[in-house]
Amino acid sequence: MAAWYSVATPDEVTRLVGAWRDAPIENEEVMGFILGVAREQVLDFGPPLPVVPEGQAVPDPPDRFVYAQLQQATNLWNAGRVSGDGDVGEGGFSFTPRPLDRTIKNIIRPPKGRPRVR
After folding, report:
1. What is the C-alpha separation between 5 and 14, in angstroms, rounded?
2. Max CA-CA distance within the chain?
3. Within a 10 A sphere around the Cβ of 7, how many other Cβ atoms?
4. Contact 5, 69 (CB under 8 A)
5. Position 35 in a domain
6. CB 65 within 8 A of CB 59
């Protein structure tokens, strides 16, 4: 299992850049805010994690939560860089970011499906 992404130490910054090559780490405080907000949104949307009795170590979050945090942080960063038209990008290559979109929601709470029987 993976730990939440953070910029609290140089090793964590290196891990973040390894996963998100274009992470805006020039301002670690802002990057920390983005990662913290993304983590809170994932936890708020996701199913509750087990309660840990006092004195016991808190287990790492599920891998899908950590991956969703990274994807949500990317969306939050891009949403903050949009133009007045709501687009990111130049020269006809643009997209409109939608924080906590359906893809991220499905990562956090995978749809329960039934196997296909043929």
Report:
1. 10
2. 56
3. 22
4. yes
5. yes
6. no
Which residues constitute the domain of residue 73?
Answer: 1-18+29-41+67-77+98-110
Ramachandran bin of 76, using left for φ above 0, alpha for ψ from -120 to 50, beta for the remaining angles: alpha
Contact in structure between 4 and 26 (CB atoms under 8 Å):
no
Q: What's the mean per-residue pLDDT of the chain?
A: 83
Give the E-state strand segments of the chain in sequence order. Answer: 88-90, 93-95
* DSSP letter assigned to residue 90: E
Buried/exposed code over 10-20 (b: 16+ C-beta within 10 A; e: otherwise)? eebbebbeeeb
pLDDT one-digit tens code per residue, 84-98 = 555 555 555 555 556
For residue range 48-73, list pLDDT tens digits in order: 888 889 999 888 999 999 999 999 99
Tokens representing 26 are: 């020039």
Report the number of distinct structural domains present in the chain.
Answer: 1
Tokens of residue 45, six digits: 């949307």
Residue 118 within any structural domain of the chain: no
